[in-house]
Write a structure and sequence with these properties.
By secondary structure, this protein is of the alpha/beta class. Helices cover 37% and strands 21% of the residues. It folds into two domains: 219 residues, Isopropylmalate Dehydrogenase (3-Layer(aba) Sandwich), CATH 3.40.718.10; 140 residues, Isopropylmalate Dehydrogenase (3-Layer(aba) Sandwich), CATH 3.40.718. Helix 1 links the parallel strand 1 and strand 2. It binds 3-isopropylmalic acid (IPM) and manganese (II) ion. 3-isopropylmalic acid binds next to helix 4.
Length: 371
C-alpha cells in the first residue's frame, strides 16, 4: 500500500433541524476518534440549512452555506424540516428549498440508499419473521437529478377556465448511462446482481431506460442483470427482500421504493445515504451524506434519537469522498459490534433479553468503545 499523498480533507457540516444537531454531535465525536486513530485531518465548517436557516436568514439554503459547500470535498448533512415551517410556500420549505437545490447545484445524480436489516434486528421490522429470518441487505441506487422531479415543462395554468398542472418525466440517454455505471460498479463489489426497475410497459422514458441499462451491462459481463416493473418490484420487496442485491431506478420510483425498503428494514434510524456527483481522477466523488430518516421533530431535543444513521453516513463520506476506507470500515464494524452487543435506542428496542436501552450519547459512547 502506498501512503496517500494528501491526508488533509475539508468538509462542510449542515446539521439542520429536529434531531439533526443531536445526532450530528455524535458523528463528529466519531470523526474526531477516526482522525486520531487513522492519522488524517478533516477541516470542518458548520453552516445553517433548512428551518434553522429560514429563522436566521429567511432562506432555507443561504448563499454563505452554498459557498461553504463549494469549498469542501463533501457535505455531511443532518436533516431538515419540522412543523414550524410546514405552512410556508413549497419552494421555500426546508426540504424542497434546501435539498433539491443542493442536489441540482452539485449535480448529485447518484443516490445510494442501503436497506440493511441485521439478523439481530429482524424483530424491529414490520415484515413477518419467516420472510426475513436471516435479515437482508439491499442497495437502492436512485437517479437523483433527472426525471419528473426536474423535467420541464412543469407548472400550472388554466385551460378553458379550468386549472391544469403538469410535470414531465424526461431522461437523456447520458443520464441513464452514468447512473447505470454507478449501479453496476456497486454490484461488482457485492453479490453481482443488479435489478433495474422501470415501467417500460407504459412509459417511453422507461423504454429508453431499459435499453440503455442493457447496453451498459456489456461493460460489466460478471454482473447478472434483471428487470422488473416498478409495481411488481414494490410487491416483491416486501415478499422476498432477501433476494435483492442492488436495484437501480429513476428518481420518483427510487423515492418511493427506498422508503418502502427503509420501512421493512426495521429502523429509519439505522440507514445512511450518499448522494454522489462528479468523480475526480482519484476516483473520489463530491458527495452529500445524510441519514435516510429525516428530522423526527416528535423526539427532537430529548437525547433519545438513534445516531447510527448519521454515523454510518459519515462512514460513507469517508469512503466515497475522502478515500479513507480503513476508517470507514472501522466505523461500520464498531456499529455492527455495538448492535451485536445489544445496545438499542428506542426505535430498535424490542424488550428482548440481552438488550441495553440507551439514548443518543450512550450509543455514541458504546460505538467509541468498540472503535
Ligand atoms: C427524499 C425526500 C425528498 C425527495 C423530498 C424531501 C424533496 O423525500 O430525499 O427522499 O423526494 O427526494
Ligand atoms: Mn423520499
Amino acid at each position: 500500500m502506498f501512503p496517500r499523498m494528501s491526508r488533509k480533507h475539508r468538509i462542510t457540516i449542515l446539521a439542520g433541524d429536529g434531531i439533526g444537531p443531536e445526532v450530528m454531535n455524535g458523528a463528529i465525536r466519531i470523526l474526531d476518534a477516526a482522525e486520531a486513530k487513522f492519522g488524517f485531518t478533516v477541516e470542518r465548517s458548520e453552516h445553517l440549512v433548512g428551518g434553522a436557516a429560514i429563522d436566521a436568514t429567511g432562506h432555507p439554503l443561504p448563499p454563505e452555506t452554498l459557498k461553504a459547500c463549494e469549498q469542501a470535498n463533501a457535505i455531511l448533512f443532518g436533516s431538515v424540516g419540522g412543523p414550524k415551517w410546514e405552512n410556508l410556500p413549497p419552494d421555500i420549505q426546508p426540504e424542497r428549498g434546501a435539498l433539491l437545490p443542493l442536489r441540482k447545484h452539485f449535480g448529485l445524480f447518484a443516490n445510494l440508499r442501503p436497506g440493511v436489516c441485521l439478523p439481530a434486528l429482524t424483530h424491529a421490522s414490520p415484515v413477518k419473521q419467516e420472510l426475513i429470518a436471516d435479515g437482508f441487505d439491499v442497495l437502492c441506487v436512485r437517479e437523483l437529478t433527472g426525471g419528473i422531479y426536474f423535467g420541464s415543462p412543469k407548472g400550472r395554468h388554466e385551460e378553458n377556465g379550468e386549472p391544469i398542472a403538469l410535470d414531465t418525466m424526461i431522461y437523456k440517454k447520458s443520464e441513464i448511462e452514468r447512473i447505470a455505471r454507478v449501479a453496476f460498479t456497486a454490484a461488482m463489489s457485492r453479490k453481482k446482481q443488479l435489478l433495474s426497475v422501470d415501467k417500460s410497459n407504459v412509459l417511453a422514458s422507461s423504454v429508453l431506460w431499459r435499453e440503455t441499462v442493457i447496453e451498459i451491462s456489456r461493460e460489466f459481463p460478471e454482473v447478472q442483470l434483471s428487470h422488473m416493473y416498478v409495481d411488481n418490484a414494490a410487491m416483491q420487496l416486501i415478499r422476498r427482500p432477501g433476494s435483492f442485491d442492488v436495484l437501480v431506478t429513476e428518481n420518483l420510483f427510487g423515492d418511493i421504493l427506498s422508503d418502502e425498503m427503509a420501512m421493512i428494514s426495521g429502523s429509519l434510524g439505522m440507514l445512511p445515504s450518499a448522494s454522489l456527483g462528479r468523480q475526480g481522477d482519484n476516483g473520489l466523488y463530491f458527495g452529500m451524506y445524510e441519514p435516510s430518516g429525516g428530522s423526527a421533530p416528535d423526539i427532537a431535543g430529548q437525547g433519545i434519537a438513534n445516531p447510527i444513521a448519521q454515523v454510518l453516513s459519515l462512514a460513507m463520506l469517508l469512503r466515497f469522498s475522502l478515500g479513507e476506507n480503513s476508517a470507514a470500515e472501522a466505523i461500520e464494524n464498531a456499529v455492527a459490534k455495538t448492535i451485536a452487543d445489544g445496545f438499542r435506542t428506542g426505535d430498535i428496542a424490542t424488550g428482548r433479553d440481552g438488550e441495553t436501552k440507551v439514548g443518543t450519547q450512550a450509543m455514541v459512547e458504546a460505538i467509541l468503545a468498540r472503535f
